[in-house]
Amino acid sequence: MRKQTIYQLNSLYRDNMKVTGYFYGKGEPALCIMGALRGDEIQQLYICSQLNKRLKQMEREGRICPGKEILVIPAANLYSINVGKRFWPSDNTDINRMFPGYALGETTQRIAAGIFEPIRHYKYGIHFCSSYTKGNYLPHVRIMHTGFEDISLAREFGLPYVIIREPKPYDTTTLNYNWQIWETAAFSVYTGGTERIDYVSAEKGVEAVLAFMTEQGILRNAGSFQEKSCILWERELSVIQCRQAGLLRTFVKTGNMVEKGELLAEIIDPYNGEVSEEITAPKKGRIFFQRDSSLVYAGAVVFKQI
Fold first, then answer.
1. Where are the transmembrane segments (predicted)?
2. Do 77 and 50 share a structural domain?
């Protein structure tokens, strides 16, 4: 294992911010794994720490295939992690909306450029990321429909679902999209938590990446995918929104099977305690996403259903 500073942002008033990469094996740039690009992605940081732990042991045992290099970057936004902010503290910009970056631009543009330059030539790229909507997803792999995507590869993680997303204009500045433009086979892996660690889903994420590396001939005997993935377009998910603002009380969890018309949640008036809205399932199916917030606004996405 080699530890190396991938990018450094100098600071006048505090310690310089160093983005650290952990290299395993030697040879062609086979796989890059990116962790927390946002300051609240503690689950993603934890998963990368566990991958580092496992890969270090596998390297000692000679289980990394010859001629293959693996890079793990646990976190790229240490300032935000330190102060507990999701986005860049000084201007609230998102590094994952700045790729491929600009070396002479604003701070987050320079960070994105400094990170992207050394990782853009890897054959495979995996980003453990989080959603803009606070909540819990079923573990899944997400890929952008750019014309460069390989759906069959996404199945080799062995996670229950592969979600294909039609990119919107703002998606063109994400790490996943730009990796694909540079002909890296890129995948975004979502697990159950963000700010709080979900240890069960985190372990699934670790095992999925090790299984993928085994299938691609990067690791020897590190695992195999557990189940056949269901392929879904994002537009096929049923989005369930609330009509009223108020306090959210949910009765089901991510992964639950529900019947059409089943009560999923209530919106409670925060002043008088009365139920102002009942949210029911529009169809029979599985809860794919559940919002993790006690206070919701009118029109907020509360559930997504398969």
1. none
2. yes
Contact between 228 and 160 under an 8 Å Cβ cutoff? The reply is: no
Record the pTM: 0.94
Amino acid at 90: S
198 and 257 assigned to the same domain: no
Burial class (CB within 10 angstroms; exposed 0-12, middle 13-18, buried 19+) of 291 = buried
Burial of residue 132 (CB within 10 Å: 0-12, 13-18, 19+) is exposed
**Mean pLDDT (whole number) for 151-178:** 94
DSSP string across 180-243:
HHTT-EEEEEE-S-SSS--HHHHHHHHHHHHHHHHHTTSBSSS----SPPEEEEGGGSEEEE-S
205 shares its domain with 258: no
Query: Comparing 1-15, 45-59, 170-184, 291-305, which segment has the lowest mean pLDDT?
Result: 1-15
Three-state SS at 274? coil
Question: Encoding tokens for residue 306?
Answer: 């398969």
pLDDT at 224: 66
Our count of domains for the chain comes to 2
Domain harbouring 241, CATH code: 2.40.50.100
Question: What digits encode the pLDDT tens for the residues 262-274?
Answer: 999 999 999 999 9
| CA-to-CA dists, residue 175 to 77, 97, 210, 285, angstroms | 14, 8, 21, 32
- Domain check: are 24 and 159 in the same one? yes
CATH number at residue 71: 3.40.630.10
The predicted pLDDT at position 225 comes to 61
**Distance between CA atoms of 275 and 269, rounded to whole angstroms?**
6
Looking at the fold, whether 124 and 253 belong to one and the same domain comes out as no
47 and 189 assigned to the same domain: yes
Range of the domain at 34: 2-233
Both 165 and 57 in one domain: the answer is: yes
